[in-house]
Amino acid sequence: MTAHPLPFRDPQLPSGERVDDLLARLTLDERIAMLHQFAPAVERLGVAAFRTGQEALHGVAWMGPATVFPQAVGLGATWNDDLVRRVGEAVSTEVRAMRAHDDRIGLNVWSPTVNLLRHPLWGRNEEGYSEDPKLTSAIATAYTRGLRGDHPAYWRTAPVLKHWLAHNNETGRDITSSSVRPRVLHEYDLRAFRESVEAGAVAGVMPAYNLVNGRPNHVSPYLREHLRTWTDQELLVCSDAGAPSNLVDSEHYFDTHEEATAAALIAGVDSFTDHGTDGSTIVARVRGALEQGLLSESDIDTAVRRQLAVRLSLGEFDPEIDPYADTKDFDTPAHRALAQEAAEQAIVLLKNDGLLPLATDTRIAVVGLLADECKLDWYSGTLIHRSTPLEGLYERFGADHVEFAEGVDRVRLKTSSGTYVSVPEAEGTDDQVRGAEGALDPALLAGRTDLPPLIADATGTDLALIDWGNDVITFRAPDGRYLSVADDGFVRASADQPGGWVVQETFRLEASGAHENGHLLKHLGTGRYVSVAADGVKVAAEDPAEAEIFEVVVTERGEDVVARAAAAADVVIVAAGNDPHINGRETEDRTTLRLPDQQERLLRAARAANPRTVLTLVSAYPYTVEHEDLPAVLWTAHGGQAAGTALARVLAGDVSPAGRLPQTWYASDDDLPDLLDYDVIGGRQTYLYFEGTPLFPFGHGLSYASFAYENLSVRRDGDALRVSFTVTNTGAVPADEVAQVYTRAVDPTVPRPRRELAAYRRVHLAPGASAELSFELPVNGLGFWDVAHGRWWVEPGQYELLAGASSEDIRLRETVRIDGEAATPRPVLANGLDAADYDEQRGTAIVDRSKTSGDAVTPVDDATGELVFRSCDFGDGVTEVSVEAAGEGTVELRLADGEVRATVDVPATGGPYAYATVGAAFAATGVQDLHIRLRGPLRLAHVGFSG
Question: Are 748 and 795 in contact (CB under 8 A)?
Fold first, then answer.
């Protein structure tokens, strides 16, 4: 046996002892330095440098070529835990293999994203799995298990869940506060994190940029009160990039960075992602906080211990016995096959009037802006292999059976002097792909300057004009390169695709009052206007009066080309959707569910020329489309490297589609709540509470086969319900079916979901074959957060168990009775009322009671708001009320009759955290509903009763 002079390197010792030994050997300076994302090496102990954070959402991202799987929302659409686990295994295997020759690759992976897809206009919809907490947690658990590996002691990679907590808006994301009532917190937002953490394959979490209930997530008490109570593991909490500085710079929550850093560290942030690779600023802030007495060394030790525990589990200190140390599998045939399988399983057939599948000899026109694209997103790796819908159809049906028409408008840009914008020939340059070389921070990648700028000449160049909606356009040169702007301000045909943290390939045409047909061309990345100078076309003008006036001369209309191709084909495939870097991405929310106008025009042109039109939506989020006159509609997220092959195989019937929608597709923008309304219960949001008619419901997806559901059985077995039923393939082709089980409280005393996913299973069945599916559902899962008593409670009564093919396609149902503790009224005499524990509200928001813990309620915009507390038990009677509040305003108390029973004037208390207790006479007896009206800029924390 090898002797280990340093106990932290002795694998025979318990892991806790090893971590403690190493921690004790580190100097204070060394420990403080480890708090930054890029922890330096400790050479005297042979401890290597370490960084937290390797993006791996659907493949290894940012670090060059890697296998690219479907976007996360596409993986959610597979409803296949086993598949997603295998994807996680492949991704983490490639992380290890890439690290073997590039030590910039980190083993602490920042994936997956478990934010619930509450609102379909959220710019980062592509990163999440579902609007449902059960489906999200199940898929996330599967992915993290694959990322972790199955060794009992050592982890292949250490996954971190993003983004804690209630984060679904990019608009003002670092300054907006999500008002999350206790029921929504416990029943919705926490659940996706909790069930994944409890499964044991999560190394940590990343707090989100936003605030929750008035308090930044990076100083959230929920990290201590909830997250760390779910597991005995030393979870590592890694800040989001730049978020520690935001606490002072944009949120103004603290006056100094020393205060902010100390508060974040004490709240539970263990690794600070700030100022790129330079840790000196964070080190100085921690030092300052320590000197000011805001921190103790034990606070620092707690955070460093968590990091060291993760590093130990990754085998860093046991390289000889680390089971994953020699991993070499990268871009293997198995990984390529898995990427194709995942892409196939992610495709959702939304509608089919019998047009699909297509016969092998079908003459196909494939048209649309996504027809020959394999789009990547911000968290993609660089493609090694690439398959577009066009390429997939060529491969499957033969090039002689497939006609292509992209449908872009071909234009020339005519200057005010009568010349035209021209793309000069570029000799001796290579075809560079953005990010192919890998980058720790791809936001810092610069545009190309080795190509000549655009010029103006007598003939000009035909450019492809693509309108992505919201007046955002891109131009593409005949050689396939997009017009882009580099740091020197010149416009070049230089980008392989739009992309980057600040997209430099997008423009906007603005009408010019000085010219009847003239337009100014604004570059959106810089906010400047395009001008034409002797040395080339550049963005230089801030003042529109100094900009060039262009006339857009259309040389070919995209609709005309599409119509000609459609008319000559047996079937038209219209590939529509989004570019993941434009109009809906990190930092930018969408403004509408509608398809961009140009794509709507192309769809209508194809349909008018040929009624046998299939709409294929390739997108990171739902759309609303009028499909009454379309015989078939499919949706797939951006499907990674095998997307085109997968689509062609589904269209041909080689694979029967079985993807299911992971979120509701709404029929109209009018069905959506405000983006910042996080109250899924009060706002009747997601399939759980939405009472309208969706375009396509949660869980929806069709097949080329048909399935029968029979023999539902439900029985109580201790703390579980055992549910079983039989599914039979009654169709003529082998196919997958996704059987779904929902629950519903029949007669609840509080608003409950219309139905709620309890279990699901994707099963493959040959024609005529049957499978008996069995599920064990915990009775506790029927409960809800009882705000009256601060507990999780299963209300006694009748519950329906529903089995079917979607949330609206229910085939079987059975009712069971659950006995238990009956409802009791609120014990207001003993406990009073915490303001945030309301049953209903109007015009209020939950805010922070203090900067460290607790909630209060305030009227929105300092106006008037109302809280309703049902079934308050005043016993034999009360005579006084006391109000604990901060700020200044009025609190009115009413009972069900509407009469004002007490008015409490709260004088100015000296600030939002300076609370005062003010009393007034108030008479009430028995069990009654209480209405509390708030007026003015006050924060109500608690109401007490006596007498």
Answer: yes
